[in-house]
Amino acid sequence: MASTILTRSATGATSITEATISAWIKRSTLGSRVIFNSAYLDASTYYFRIQFDPNNFLEIENSDNATNLYLKPNQVFRDVSAWYHIVVRLSLTETGNDRCKLYINGEQVTSFASQIAMTGDQFLVGKNNYTVRVGSNTSASANFDGSMAHVHFIDGLAYDASTFGETDSLTGIWKPIISPSVTYGTNGFFLKFAS
Fold first, then answer.
1. Are 48 and 123 a contacting pair, CB within 8 Å?
2. How many CA atoms lie within 13 A of 155 on its CB side?
3. Which residues lie across from 52 on neighbouring strands?
């Protein structure tokens, strides 16, 4: 999907303590680009966001009137020929840094340039009356430019990367599980983006 966004208004009872986002992405344009955003009103105060910063570092942030979760891995994402599988696992039943786990191509990321463990009591992911955006926040200049496939948003359950991908026994390459066994919850969804 090139500079295209999808939006959905979340409605009804939802989980604010557990969620999972899984997406396969391939970048076409580097710099500041948003992958997933869930926000209330103007998106500047109450939001959850997965994005690339201007220097191509991945950022995960939850802001409940102030940042109470922030992850920025040491890895940079500059290869526009590569597919990346990104999984963010959120669970307030965990403690400290385990409340937000990040997986890249099946491997849990443990090395961060910056990290603030979740201190709040709610993840603002698909919350009632919030708008979920795939490929953008409220700024068109940050629209994702590239390809996405097998985008899953799980409302209410925390899954590991192995739910959505597996290592190919012949090539050793991490590949998607076409039909993962998951429960999407009230506001969850699956976007295959088949051509």
1. yes
2. 20
3. 33, 58
Gyration radius (Cα) of the chain, Å: 15
**Identity of the amino acid at 81:** S
Question: What are the CA-CA distances from residue 145 to residues 90, 150, 170, 176 (Å)?
Answer: 26, 16, 31, 21
Q: In whole angstroms, how far apart are CA 94 and each of 14, 39, 69, 91?
A: 19, 24, 14, 6
β 112-116/6-9 pair status: unpaired
The answer, as to whether pTM is greater than 0.85, is: yes
Q: Check: CB of residue 19 under 8 Å from CB of residue 126.
A: yes
pLDDT digits (tens, 9 = 90+) for 150-163: 999 999 999 999 99
Q: Is 105 left (phi over 0), alpha (psi -120 to 50) or beta?
A: left
CB atoms within 10 A of CB 110: 11
Residue 1 has pLDDT above 70, yes or no: no
Q: Which residues contact 167 (CB under 8 A, 6 or more apart)?
A: 106, 173, 174, 175
Phi, psi dihedrals of residue 136, rounded to the nearest 5°: -170, 165
Residue of 106, 120, 170, 166 whose CA lies nearest to 17: 120
Per DSSP, 2 falls in state: B
Distance CA 93, CA 2 (A): 37
